[in-house]
Amino acid sequence: MKRVITLLTDFGIKDPYVAQMKGVILSINAEAQIVDISHEVGRHNIYEAAFILLSTYSKFPRGSIHVVVVDPGVGTRRRAIVVETKRYLFVGPDNGVLSLAVEDDGVSKVYEIKNSLFLRSHISRTFHGRDIFAPVAAYLSLGISPKYVGPEISFRDMIKIARSKVGIINDRTFRARVVYIDNFGNVITNIKASMIPREIHNVTIKFRDKELAIPFKRAYDEVPRGEILSLINSFDYLEVAVNQGNAAKRLGLSIGDPIIVKFS
Q1: Which CATH number fits domain 167-263: 1.10.10.60, 3.10.20.30, 3.30.70.100, 2.40.30.90?
Q2: Which of 51, 92, 127, 240 has its Cα between 20 and 30 A from that of 208?
Q3: What stretch(es) of the chain map to CATH 2.40.30.90?
Q4: How confident is the model at residue 163 (pLDDT cuts 50, 70, 90)?
Q5: How far is CA 145 from the centre of its chain?
């Protein structure tokens, strides 16, 4: 049975961890279609993984199974869960990493993974990705109902990450945060495109003791190479970038940094 299973982890690709998860999945369902979202999430960075999942999950076919293993609490009392939403299934640790995406799609049911029939016979205390999450995802891809993995639990009891809210100072000035920095060093804020006033030309950002006026453009190449700009990115958020450069390093910004953004 062909069904998409996505993998999002902080494992990197040097070690055999990702391959082991794929091997377990394919041993149960040889027809599963496995897609790597990313394995380069910052180590133990639940917030970064949650944002990547939120930005990606809905681009996949309805019924896809999203497996996330960014799990600093592996081997502790934290729960392993399956979340059934309106269109997808999500498998991973109950540490908040799934919460933004499942809330966005609409939660139907949440189950704690308890049924040993769907797990590997030996459960490592350090690798639940291989021994719990991968086999559960594989069985789900065969059409097994998530209700069989274990008891239903309340969504209210799930660990959740609070959405980073934008503070409105006035209709052109906002208190915002850096929510993601991609591999190019582009600085992504939590200001959605729908919040940005029309007919603007510049964005002024204030952070720590700095204040910087940045031209607002439609594409990176609308400024010379090495010049800074702001734009609406492919996630539909306000982004600060350097054309063929690294804005995060240029500005000294990191994920979570508070900024004041003014449009003019």
Answers
A1: 2.40.30.90
A2: 51
A3: 167-263
A4: confident
A5: 25
State the CATH class of domain 4-157: alpha beta
Classify burial at 103, counting beta carbons within 10 Å of its beta carbon; exposed 0-12, middle 13-18, buried 19 or more: middle
Element (H, E) at 104: helix 99-105
Global pTM reads 0.93
Three-class DSSP labels, 206-256? EECCEEEEEEECCCHHHCCCCCEEEEECCCCEEEEEECCCCHHHHHCCCCC
Residues of CATH 3.40.50.10790 domain(s) within the chain?
4-157
Partners of 203 in beta bridges: 214, 263
When pLDDT is cut at 50, 70 and 90, the band that residue 14 belongs to is very high
Model pLDDT, residue 188: 97
Give tens-digit pLDDT for 42-81.
Answer: 999 999 999 999 999 999 999 999 999 999 999 999 999 9
Distance (Å, whole) CA 2 – CA 250: 45
Secondary structure in 3-state letters for 25-57: HHHHCCCCEEEEEECCCCCCCHHHHHHHHHHHH
Residue 191 has pLDDT above 80, yes or no: yes
